[in-house]
Structures are given as structure tokens and as C-alpha cells.
Amino acid sequence: MAKLSRQSLRTTAGVACAACALASPARADEPSVDKPRVADQAARAIDRAWLYLDDARVAAPGQVIATTSASFTQVGVNPDPTSAPYRAFAFNTAQPGALVSVGGEVGLLPRLSLMAIGQAQLGGEGAAAVSPGAIAGLRVELSPSTWRDVHVLASGGYLRETWAAPTRDADTGALSGGEPNGGDGAWGELAVSADLRRLRLGLTAHGEHVFAAGRDAVDAMVKAGASVRVVDWLRAGVEWVGQDLEEAFVDRAEGGARHFVGPTLAAQLLQERLTIVAGPSVGLSDASPKLIGRLALSYGF
Questions:
Q1: Is residue 234 within 8 Å of 267, Cβ to Cβ?
Q2: Per-residue pLDDT, 28
Q3: 119, 142, 167, 299 - which has most CB atoms within 10 Å?
Q4: The CATH number of 45-300 is which of 1.10.510.10, 2.40.160.40, 3.10.450.50, 2.60.120.10?
Q5: Could you give the CA distance from residue 152 to residue 86 in angstroms, rounded to a whole number?
Q6: Which residue ranges make up each domain of the chain?
Q7: Measured between alpha carbons, how far is 207 from 216 in angstroms, rounded to an integer?
């Protein structure tokens, strides 16, 4: 009996071990079906929380970041398009009426990406006469990978202006207000951002030249901003844009410098793969846009 009891115990233990093996979950090194790996989530996360500033980081190799934005600009005291009161940068921030842009960025190599954006005016005064524009270029992250809290990025490429066609004088038949359908040009940009715990500071310097008669040798734009992480998924901040600063003291091809400033809110959702950022801005001078509202979305694939 004692011998049989020991054999029974061994048999029972073997059956129990087999049952546990069959009932055990998948091995730890196998990914869960409904919960992606943390590494996958980090690879697809993006950081596009600025509304106007350039984000000083590039897409990872093979990563695609889709972007779209919509804005509406209310003109100030001088809405005459023939005087170019809101000269249409292809990076346009103040074309009167509603402006929509669609584009994206794809990572080519570590620290190098390609970006392209098309934009068109969909509403507002004279919208039918506004030709679509586009920008395309390369983005290169200059800061070393060991700099976790400071990022420096240079970018540049081709532009086609989003431009309101000039008007024709009813008496003389002469065209005024610039080249028909805008012009082609080249642009360059330098962006810097720094994270100080919850506070983020950013600065973007932009220059471009349009290959058309009567245009400035260089058109300069500077953008500055600050934002604070309120909670894990929400940032609140403020951004300032100065456009055509080369004309701060002399009125030239674009009618003088313009400035606007306003608050922003940025929501980073879906493990930071989706960013929604929006905010209103007000002009700081009579020649500046009176009011601008802007909404932008970015999604990392």
C-alpha cells in the first residue's frame, strides 16, 4: 500500500505539472495581441506640440508623420490685396480668409527626413483668385543624440507661394499687386527647443527668397514660444510670430513687418502618436492680421 501510494503521488504530481504547463500564458518574450510593445509605442510617438514654431526633431527612419492644419485670418485695417498686406509665405500664417494645408514627413536616415506640404485657400474674400502653394525640403537634426533636453534642427528646400493674383485696373488695364499666381523660391530654417522639466522653450528663424521681380532679397520670419506640461497629455503655452522683419524700418516689397501673438493648447493622445494643437492670436499693429484662429493635427505611423 505504501508503495502504491508513492506511485500514485508521483502520477498525480506529473498530471498537475502538465496541466499547469498547458494553462500557462504565452511566454514573456512573445508580444501580446491587444497590447503593443513599449518599444513599438516609443518608435511611433511624435512631438509636434507647437502651433507655429518648427519642432526641432525629425521623424525616425521609416516613420511617417501626417500633418494637416486649418486657419482663418481676419484682415486688419488694410485688406487691399494689391498692397500685399499679408504676403503669402508658402509657410503662410496670414493669408486673408480660410487656409488649409495637408502634408507630412518621412524619416530617411537617422537624423534626416523629407517633408512636403501643400496648401490652398478655401474661403474668404478673393478666395477664387488665390493659387495653391507648396513647400518641400529636407530636415536635419544637428544636436547630438546625447542631448536629451536640447534639440537643434536645420531645414531647407523649395517653395511655391500661396498667392492672391493681382488685380487689373479698370481704366488702364494694368496689373498691380505682384506676380500672377505667385512665384517659386527657396527657403531655409533653423529651429531650437529646450525642455526644462515641465517648461519647453522654442525659437525658429526662417528666411526665404522668391525668384520674382520686385521682391526682397531675403524675407525673414522669427517665431518664439513657451509651453508648460499641465498633465501628461496636455500642454499650454504662448507663441509669437514676426513676419517680414527685414521691413521693420522701411516699407518695401511686402508692405512692412507684422506681428501677432496668442495662447495655445496641445493634446498628445494615443501614446503620443496623435497631437492636436490649437489657439487664437491677435495682431500687435495696425498692419498686422486683426485675428487668427488655427488648428493643427499630426499623427505618427
A1: yes
A2: 44
A3: 119
A4: 2.40.160.40
A5: 29
A6: 45-300
A7: 11
CA nearest 157: which of 139, 180, 183? 139
**DSSP readout, 22-47?**
HHS---TTSPPSSS--HHHHHHH---
Type of residue numbered 154:
A
Give me the amino acid identity at 200.
R
Identify which has the larger pLDDT, 10 or 271: 271
DSSP string, 191-225: EEEEEETTEEEEEEEEEEEE-STT--S-EEEEEEE
Task: Report the amino acid identity of residue 38.
Answer: V
d(CA 61, CA 58): 9
**What's the grid cell of residue 224?**
518664439
Strands (E), the chain: 64-74, 97-109, 112-123, 130-131, 133-141, 150-160, 163-164, 167-168, 175-176, 184-196, 199-210, 219-231, 234-243, 258-269, 274-283, 291-300
Query: Quick one: pLDDT at residue 85?
Result: 41
For the entire predicted model, the pTM comes to 0.77
Mean pLDDT, the chain, whole residue set: 78
Q: What pLDDT, on a 0 to 100 scale, did the predictor assign at position 81?
A: 42
| Distance of alpha carbon 287 from alpha carbon 268, whole angstroms | 35
The predicted-structure confidence for 32-72, as pLDDT tens digits, reads as follows 443 344 445 556 789 899 999 999 999 999 999 999 999 88
Give the whole-angstrom CA distance, residue 74 versus residue 79: 9
Q: Is residue 127 pLDDT above 60, yes or no?
A: no
Sign of torsion over alpha carbons 64, 118, 137, 237: negative
